[in-house]
Every structure is written in C-alpha cells, then in structure tokens.
Amino acid sequence: MDAQQLIEMIHPIVDDGEVPGAVVGVVHHGHTSVAGVGHTEPGGATAMTADAVMRISSNTKPMVASVALLLVQDGVLHLDDLVEEFVPELTGRRVLRQLDGPIQDTVPVQRSMTIEDLLTMRMGFGFVFESACPAVEAAAAAGLGFGPPDPSTPFSPDEWVDRFARLPLLEQPGMVWRYELAFGVLGVVLARVTGKSLDVVMRERLFTPLGMTQTGFLAPPQHLVPAFAQSENGLVLFDSAFESRWSTPQAFPDARSGLVSTVGDLLQFTRMLLEDGGGLLSPESVAVMTSDHLTAEQRSGPSAQAFLDGGGWGYGVGVTDGKCGRRYGWGGGLGTLWYSWPEHDTAVILMTQVLPPSTELFDAFTNAVEATLNPS
C-alpha cells in the first residue's frame, strides 16, 4: 500500500468538489510515501503539493499528549499529580448539581482533577449534547473556545485559566468523557511545569527531535494553503493563506487545536509511535497512550457517542478494535485524519482544509485502507 494507491481511490470524491484538494501520507512496513491530488482552492489552478502546510486543529492533541508523557518519563510530572498543584486557580472546584441547572447551584468536588483526567478528557467539563447547559453557554460567552478552531484569542494562558476557574465543573472529575476543554488546561500545565511557553516546549521536546520542521503554532505563509468552510452556496473561504490567523504569534498557544503541519511531519510522528517510541517515548508510554482508558458507561455517554462512535479513548487519541485489529489515531475539524494499525505496521494520513470535514471522504479513505489491509 502506498499514498498514490489511496489517492486513486479518493480521486473521484475530490473531482466531485467535496474538497478542492488533498494530500495523503502512508507508512507501511517502514516504507513512506506521500502524494497530492487536486488544487488548493475551488476552481483554482495551483496544485495541492505534498509539502502543503495545513491547520491540523485537533490533531494537535496527540502531540501534546506525547509531550506530557515525555515529562512523566522525566519525573517532572506524574499521572496522579493534582492539576491544582500547577494551576492553583482551579483549587476548590464546585460541581453543578444538575447539568441543565443554574451555574450557582453546585455541590463540592469529591476529589481534585489529576493529570490523567486531563489526558483522558474526564476533567469534568466539555461539550454537552444531551441538554441545555448554562455553564457551557457561560464558557462560550467567556471566550474559552467552543466554536471552530481560532488561534486569534487575545487571552494569555493565565487569563484563559482565570476565566475557566470562575465556572463550576459539569460533573465530578473522572466520571464522564467530554470533549475537549481538558486539553486547554493540559497545555497550561505543560507550560507552567517547564517554565516555558507551550510552543517552545513542543518544539524542544517533540518537533526538533523528530525533525518536524514545518510543525508549530505559527504558519510559514510560503507553504500554507487556504482553508474553506462548507455553506449552502458551496465552499467559502474560512482562512486565507497570506493573511491567515495562524500567521500571527498566538497569545494562547492552544493545546486543543492550534498547530499547523505537513503530511511529511505527521508521518514522522506516527512512525515514532509505530516504532515503540523510536527512542523518544518509551514503549510503555506508547502502550498507555494508545490503549483505551474508558469504562463501558463512559463510552456510551452522549459526548463519547458523538465523537468516538462507540470506540474508546487513550491519551489524546481515539482507540477502536475493528476488522483490522486495534486502530488508534484522531482527526481534526478542519479536515485532517490520522489512523495507525500497529498490527499491520501501518499509519495513514489524509489532509484537507475544509470545515467541517467531509464524512464521505473520511469514510471512503478509511474503508479503502482497511480493505487493503484486510482484503478478505
């Protein structure tokens, strides 16, 4: 299996205009390949090249989780450390008595949230699908980020945390899986425990060791492609290439969704995981990161059903057992997708720049890979 083979399988969907262009990367039994198809914008003349820089939104999370585990390996962090040790603003949390109740109607927290609660997104706050929730409405109004990825928030990490600390938790820590605010807090923890901004921590601990030269919180405009949003009138511009919101240094480097990258760089990251950490992460860290940590009840919750579709969650990655064995990886809301199948020594990446992602394209791509891996 190689990238060009997968490109041919998705070529008709690109030609139909679901996305203007795409780049595919494959690592299969140690062989790496990259290929592009289509153009950088609808009806455009500029080809989508293999070195295109794109906004990877939630594919940021697995990388942040990896850096957290590197700090655990160093003994700087421990999975059972209390978050309030590093973010004292979150000491003495209160918890909503009822999810759809007023934010003033609370009970005391039963235990403090831990680093592992952040990694597993069981912090006690995130997206709510099952009812109205005034606390989430207040979080959105406070600018904590409940919409499309946007790096232009004016808040510093300290201001962001301060605004979050004014709100109660939705549930007791450790009880419910909810996307995705926990990784915002995790990014603050990593910066504070190292005494460096998150962009520096990520570069020093992960990007430089892996040779990921095009990955970061600041986009190089010479290779950045525009991003688009689906609308009733077709695709409309969401973020341009040369006046991008990602081309200005971020006041709050967002551990949830702030990075840009290329297929080549992402392949370096996925290859490291397939190689049991490649001498960077330990095999034990890779195993714990890519194993499901949710209970059956947590996997069946409304937020988990919406994002995990019956699968589980490791540290920054979704985990699924399917016809090709265990699969782990994650996607980004601006049209990026990564999966690895460790039993097949295979990782694949699909990168587009359309919000929300094309489910038709994602499904066709994943089905094509799995049909190749398991032709029976």
UniProtKB/TrEMBL annotation:
<keyword id="KW-0378">Hydrolase</keyword>
<dbReference type="InterPro" id="IPR012338">
    <property type="entry name" value="Beta-lactam/transpept-like"/>
</dbReference>
<dbReference type="InterPro" id="IPR001466">
    <property type="entry name" value="Beta-lactam-related"/>
</dbReference>
<protein>
    <submittedName>
        <fullName>Serine hydrolase domain-containing protein</fullName>
        <ecNumber>3.-.-.-</ecNumber>
    </submittedName>
</protein>
<feature type="domain" description="Beta-lactamase-related">
    <location>
        <begin position="8"/>
        <end position="370"/>
    </location>
</feature>
<dbReference type="GO" id="GO:0016787">
    <property type="term" value="F:hydrolase activity"/>
</dbReference>
<dbReference type="InterPro" id="IPR050789">
    <property type="entry name" value="Diverse_Enzym_Activities"/>
</dbReference>
<dbReference type="Pfam" id="PF00144">
    <property type="entry name" value="Beta-lactamase"/>
</dbReference>
